[in-house]
Amino acid sequence: MSDQRIDSLTSSAYRQALEVIASVEPRIAEATRQELVDQRGSLKLIASENYASPAVLLTMGTWFSDKYAEGTVGHRFYAGCQNVDTVEALAAEHARELFGAPYAYAQPHSGIDANLVAFWSILAHRVETPALAKLGAKNVNELSEEDWESLRHELGNQRLLGMSLDAGGHLTHGFRPNISGKMFHQQQYGTDPETGLLDYDAVAAKAREFKPLVLVAGYSAYPRRVNFAKMREIADEVGATLMVDMAHFAGLVAGKVFTGDEDPVPHAHVVTTTTHKSLRGPRGGLVLAQEEYAADVDRGCPMVLGGPLSHVMAAKAVALAEARQPSFQVYAQSIADNAKSLADGFLSRGATLVTGGTDNHLVLLDVSSFGLTGRQAESALLDAGVVTNRNSVPHDANGAWYTSGVRLGTPALTTRGFGHDEFDRVAELIVHVLQNTQPGTTKDGKPSKASYTLGEGVADKVRDASAEMLDKHPLYPGIDLS
Ligand SMILES: *Cc1c(COP(=O)(O)O)cnc(C)c1O
User: Fold this and answer.
1) Which of 10, 73, 199, 221 has its CA 20 to 30 A from that of 207?
2) Is 110 touching ligand 1 by the criterion CB < 6 Å?
C-alpha cells in the first residue's frame, strides 16, 4: 500500500475513534487529542521513549483486550483462545527470528514483569528443580510442610550481582525499594572512577568474592556498549547464570548495531527487554532464553503473571515484524550516529559528558559544570520545550532525587527524522538554556537544589528554534485530526 493511502486511512481511523470516545467521555478524547499536539510540539529526548507506528497503535485498540488466556500457546486454562494462540505464537516467532534466540516469551506486561519472570525462572531452574529432585518429589505440592519451609528459605536467600544504580543500573536489578532487592541478597558493581567505564576485572573480582547465583548485565543510563562475551566468561567462572536486561538498547540489537560480543542474545542464558523503548513497539516486555531455561520461562504464567494482554501481544507481533524489515537497521544505525552527533555537539561547546561521550543511544550530561542540579536543568529545559529526565551520575553529590545529570536519548527524535545537523543544533540549544539558568536560593538564603531562574526570552527563543526543526520533521504526518 502507498504511504499516502496509509496516511489517509490512519487519519480517518483516528478521527472516527476520537468521535466514538468523545460520545462517552469527551474529556478523555480531548486529552488524547492534546497529547498529540504536545508531543508534536516538543523535543522529546527521554532515552526510554519513542513513537510507535500507527499500525502498532491501532493493533492495541481491539477486542483482544478483554480476553483471558492464561497458560501457553495451545495449552490454555480458558476455552476459545485459538486467535490468541495465533497472536502469541507469531509474536514469539518474530522475536526468535529477529534476535536469533532459541526461545521467546511474549507475555510479560512490562520490563519489570519480564525481569520477575526471568528471576523466578532462574530460581526455579537452579534452586527449586534440583531440590525437588533430591527429595524425590515431582512438584512443590508434594512436599511436606517442613521440606517446603526449607525450600522457601533457600529460594529467598540467593545472591544477585548487578550494576549499581548511579553507574546506570536499574531499580529492578536488586535494589531495596524494588521487590528484586527484597528477593535477593544483592551486591553491585560500578564503573571505573577515572574513566566512568565498566571495569571487567573489577566485576570479575567482585563475582569471585560474592559468588552470585545471578549476574545481571544491562543498564538504563550507561552511555557505552557492554562486552557480553566477557560478562559470560565471568558468570561461567563463578557458576552464575548470566541475565542481560536489554530494555534500553533492544532496538540496537534488533537493528544489528550491536553484534558479536555486544549482542547479548548468544551470550546470556536469559535476556529480558521492554518492547516500547528503542525497539519502538507497544508498552510491554519479552523474555528470550537459551533452550536450557525455556521450560522454566514458559511457566511465567502462573509463576509470576496472570492473564496476558492479548491486544498488546498482537501489537508486539506487529512491531517485531517492522523491526525485521531492512529499514529498521537503517533506523537503529541512525539512533547511534545521532547520539554521537549530540555528544559531539556538547563536547565542542565545552560541556561535560559522563565517560566523555557515547557509543549507544544515550548521553549523560553532567550539569554540575553549569552550577546546576539535574532537577534545575530538567525544569529549565522543560520550560523551553525540551523534554528530558534528570539522572544520577556516578558518585553523585546531589543524591538520587536532585541528581547532577540529565539523560538524553535519540530514539524518539530519530523516528521523526532528525539527523546530524538537527542533533548538533539540539546540543546548542540545550547548552544555551543551561548557560542562561541561574540556581535559586531557599527561604533562609541557602543555595537551592530545585529553584532556578531562566534568562528572559531564552525559553521563547529555544521554542522558536525547535519549532523550525519539528515542523520540518512532523510527528505522525499521516494523522490529521483537524
Ligand atoms: C525501563 C527499564 C525497565 C522497566 O521497564 P517497565 O516497562 O517500565 O517496567 C527494566 N529494566 C531496564 C534496564 C529498564 O531500562
Assistant:
1) 221
2) yes
CA 250, CA 279: separation in Å to the nearest integer?
6
248 lines ligand 1 (CB under 6 A): yes
CATH 3.40.640.10 residue ranges in the chain? 65-323
* Distance from residue 369's CA to the centre of ligand 1 (Å): 29
Q: What is the pTM of this model?
A: 0.96
Q: pLDDT per residue over 64-118, tens digit each?
A: 999 999 999 999 999 999 999 999 999 999 999 999 999 999 999 999 999 999 9
- Ligand 1 neighbourhood includes 247 CB (under 6 angstroms): yes
Please report which helix (H) or strand (E) contains residue 147, including its range.
helix 145-155
Q: Is the CB of 98 under 6 A from ligand 1?
A: no
Q: Is 220 in the pocket of ligand 1 (CB under 6 A)?
A: yes
**% helix, strand, coil for the chain, step of 5:** 50, 15, 35
What CATH class is the domain 326-472?
Answer: alpha beta
Q: Which phi and psi (to 5°) does residue 334 adopt?
A: -65, -35
The mean pLDDT of 122-148, rounded to a whole number, is 96
pLDDT, tens digit (0-9, with 9 covering 90-100), for 153-194: 999 999 999 999 989 999 999 999 999 999 999 999 999 989
Domain formed by 65-323, architecture: 3-Layer(aba) Sandwich (3.40)
CATH 3.90.1150.10 in the chain: give the residue spans: 326-472
291 labelled binding-site residue: yes
- How far apart CA 55 and CA 10 sit, in angstroms, is 9
Q: Which of 46, 49, 50, 112 to mutate to test the pocket of ligand 1 (most atoms within 8 A of CB)?
A: 112
pLDDT at 438: 96
Q: Of 326, 320, 323, 363, whose CA–CA distance to 341 is shortest?
A: 363
Q: What is the structure's pLDDT at 480?
A: 86
